[in-house]
Amino acid sequence: MADVAREAGVSVATAGRALGDYGRVGDDLRDRVKAAADRLGYSPNVVARSMRSGGTHSIGFVGADISNPFFATALRGVCDVAREHGYEAILTNSDDRLDVERAAVQVLLDKQVEGIVVAPTSVTDVDHLKRAQEVGVPIVLLDRSSSALDADSVVIDNEMAAHDAVTYLLNLGHRRIGMLACVDVEESPEVVARAGTGRLQARGAARPSIDRIRGYLAAMDDYLAPSSADLVRCTGLGSPAQAEREADALLALAQPPTAVFAADNVATQGVFRAARRRGLAIPGDLSMVGFDDLDWTTLVDPPLTVVAQPPLDMGRTAAEQLFARIKGEDRPGERIVLPTELIVRSSAAGHGAQKRSA
């Protein structure tokens, strides 16, 4: 509000009356203030809402891909908590596109939600989220965190989860271990080298798969196992067909991996389908560890060893953090890390090699 007032050359009180459509304000002055708000990207509806007592008793959710079981389950957690607080949740989907995310946030602001849970497409391009905070709408990040935004975030330790999964395969004797990760295909083939140096700041850097690649590399380094760009394949942003194609390319290498770590649930399906299409026995010909403990991973033969993350708890925790903010809790943003679990089933078997000493 102060920025709008400064831009229009009026007091904060006058700006509030002009945007809130209350009190005595001349038409010319009201137009000037609203023009200033437009230039600064402030929605008059949002600012008007911020000037009123009470609220709409609604919150917003911006998922990266609500067709993905992870986000669908997280949304269930958000909705459950919203209902417990007497609120409704308004759902939007960004398709992991920044322009769509910006538009979704604006739609939610125009609907006068009192807070937003968002899985951000970018960890650096967050001005639209900052603007929401500036007009009194708290933001909580889900699945991804950003040092560029002072906001609570609810995540898992993606690097450690991947490290544990790959270490499990290494302890079984595997050394040529492939990885399939949900990363923008335009970042391949340099993604491995850039992950190792921590310089992943291009498009897709917000994705948890980047930290999972780092965990993969760290585990391979621990065992002095070779890691190279041909062993890490990028599936694109959540495309099942692309995941299967990249998994097939990985298995078609002249020296194919003896084991694969699939870094998300889409990649897990891709590896399993590609292996079946090639007639590879799991774990006889290929060992694999997947990500996300979805129902289908226990129904196939063999049932899959997976890294299980808690999407329902993540959604609930994000919503509880949001309601604490809505109620006026004022403190620096907190990064909340929920635990994962490696669930060992039957999709990985020993390869006979021993761990090399450092």
TrEMBL record:
Residue span, HTH lacI-type domain: 1-53
Pfam families membership: LacI, Peripla_BP_3
Superkingdom to which the source organism belongs: Bacteria
SMART domains: HTH_LACI (SM00354)
Keywords: DNA-binding, Repressor, Transcription, Transcription regulation
One MF annotation (Gene Ontology) recorded for this entry: transcription cis-regulatory region binding
The name this protein goes by in its record: LacI family transcriptional regulator
